[in-house]
Amino acid sequence: MTVKIQEPEQSESKYAETARAFRQNVKKDLANAELRENFHGAMNYLMAKRAASFPSDDELETLRNQCKLIKQRALLKLPYLLEKLESNLQANGIHVHWAETITDANEIIAQVITSKNGKHIVKGKSMVSEETALNDYLHARDMEILESDMGEYIVQLAHEHPSHIIMPAIHQNKKQVADLFDKHIDGFDYTTDVDALIGEGRRILRDKFCHADVGITGVNFAVAETGTLCLVENEGNGQMSSAVPNVHIALTGIEKVVELLEDVPPLLSLLTRSATGQAITTYFNMITKPRQSDEKDGPEEVHLVLLDNGRSQAFADEELRQTLQCIRCGACMNHCPVYTRIGGHAYGTVYPGPIGKIISPHMLGLEATKDLPTASSLCGACGEVCPVKIPIPKILQRLRTESVKVHSGSPDELKGAGSNRKPMEATIWKIWSFIHKHQGMYRFSMWVATRLRGLLPSKLGVWTQVRSAPQLAPKTLHERIQARQPRG
Amino acid sequence: MVMDIFERSQAARTSILNKLKQQVEGADYSKLPAEKGFCYPQLPVADMLENFVEHLQANHAQVISVSAENVYQVAINQLRERGIEKLLCGKGSVLAEPLQATLDSAPEQTLKLSIYDSHLADCKQEMFYDMPASISSSRWLIAETGTLVLWPSASEPRTLSLIPPVHIVVAYASTLHANFATLIHNNQWQAQMPTNVLLISGPSKTADIQQTLAFGAHGPKELIVLLVNDLI
Amino acid sequence: MTELNSQHLRHYPNKPKQVYLYGTCLADVLFPDSGIDAIEFLEQQGIDVIFPQGQTCCGQPAYNSGYQQQAKSVALQQIAQFPLDIPIVIISGSCGGMMRHHYPELLKGEPGIEAFCERIFEFTEFLVHVLKIKLTDNGEPEKVAMHTSCAARREMGVHITGASLINQLDNVELVIHKQEKECCGFGGTFAVKHGDISAAMVADKSASLVDADVVRFVSADWGCLMNINGALEYQKQPLRGEHIASYLLARTAGKKAGETDNDS
Fold it and tell me: Domain LUD: where (chain B) (predicted)?
């Protein structure tokens, strides 16, 4: 059963607007001491866990190189691996759908649900479904969709979205979770005991799993060779969502495909250790077929939805393509001094932190995300821990270049290229360059500057809001050396 | 133009693949750099087994060394200690018959063996609300991470290891592999992937609230591994 | 792509008779003492130091702001100032990282660019790996901390060479401060474009340096020093950071640390 519809309206992702509000979000969240404390504690915990899980630098570096190459090989063969994945999945009895936009992905999912008369939907953790704002879409069509990952459940109750890709509710402490449960769950016996809070979530969600007719999950690795969808998790909600309801819909980005089954073990090892410092998660679930005729459980139908949503734009440039190597471990955010201070929501994007800064421009365009590439000191902590060696700082620098360049209107240009170009700033850099490439001009300018040092104001905008102004030297190094060592 | 969403999916497929192919068509795969994996030191089996147990225990599984003879009695004892009177076992599972025989040989036992013999859809209520424990076998073990590899089948459905709050797994030391990579490679999984493979490395857990570990998030709260050392 | 912490992979030349000094734009107009101190220190090691008067800035500010063309023309101007095939010693890890690791891509195709980048040495790296220096400490016992700029740490390995130099000073105890690896929040134009975030970062960095209970801290980068010292001064904290070249010169020459030979 399908409903004939018009071409979908290309509505902008709701995250474009929140990303544009980056500066306001930052101001608000930096001022929230409790939030900063929650993030600070969590990031220190995750950094320590990761460090402890890699006792050998040699092993870590070998694995990082290996996994980088595995992902680069998969990307070089991407269209062919996607075709192979599709044909193997279909041979296994799994339906494959393709979507270029988030609206299309949502619509495919809604249609699959409708065709099975689904009403109660449970969702395992899926960042791609956050990307498509699937919950909003299904709610608007009177379908009940419940998040089942504990963190996602908390976030859904609070009408928020995840502030971290691995630990969605990391911005809340247990007191805040208890208050939330108190507000939303009838008969909740108030407690801040974490075991009891999880027990409460378990009780409610088990009931939902028992009655759900459709389960939705993401995918961590899609293996082309065998047509296998892999799910990494600790709680068991991914299994509950993929094994208990009669229909399982998996939603993922096109970059999640890997070529070989043997590519999986090193990626899995790096993923879990980089993310939470675990040698392996409690569950690693490999789904290759729907329920077979002699089997007693598992879904009768399995669907995979492959989403582009800007990924092919990143793919079209060899440097930016490296963005798609990401295995979504979250280590870059855990180690990012900016993320630690502003938290995940301030970014206004689905994917926060360093990886969010380099992937979101492809999803939302550089205009909506123009403040993200510059919101980095380029300290390099993200690149240093990235398990697949994405040169995040280099890509940030590249996106800065793209966003200040002169907009050419060429179809190969990134969406929103040139949208952060300010005539005044461009002129300043031209003057700067002119001075610095003419040594006489430079020396004269610096000579003047140092002679006028007394005129340097003690207030220098944002710099002096928390710092004293620097003092110019009475004479430049150039001058002093010339006086000292005349040969120059 | 009116196009239904599944037709549009085909159009999207063409468009996406064309865009990607435009970039990498004709790429020379022979130029791909060699991928070097890390050479893990080969450990004696006894050390591997020790690692396996240590990792599982660190992940809050209970590991009990048993003999091939007393494995069923130990399972029954474990459940009795917990006051559990019902145990779910797969229909046609290798464990079913010997378990029943052990129960039959001691009439004072109160434990009832329940057999997973209907479709989940037909026994969901019982599975979720009236099934305190389950038992299943593992096909392989992984030393490096303390992992049980379950290969669910018609005789041991996958939800057996997922829904009941206490899950017992019978594991044989002779099925131990050093790591996941060698396990896949040595057994050529590529050629034989079943409906579902499950790697389990402890009871269900979460640290989603303030990084505080809590067990039994959605799956079993307890994982009991009965380890038969059949290497000696 | 930049290979991080490339020190251990690098082939180091023998001790040269002559080197160039790259003073950096920041030291030029704000902190020239450290340039003079670095020259004095190298001369004491028997090395002839040449300071080409045509040098200006490595181009990093424009490069990091996305103005590639502007960065490129300035970078080319720098290269032209260093014709002799001798090491170029830079008193900033971050500018060193720019010239050693980012020039190859920025100036791709320019003749001799690889050879030029091979001649770039950060000051502490040069002392440890090329001079294989042995320091004699003539100063009073004291505790110091070290802050390594992120580029210096990740591109030039200065956290290793800097610490190894401080550890050679018998009377100096190097104290590792909390979150020692973390960025101070400078990041060039970042500190201005995202002043709120930068302020939160420098507040934490300065607090952890104060908590370390040291008499001073040293760094090989004036960008960070300007940022952290500015914050400490604003907070009316007595603690200050000093460039490692000045610190080493003072400790080894028996001059009191912190004392500078002002405009002479």
Answer: 49-228
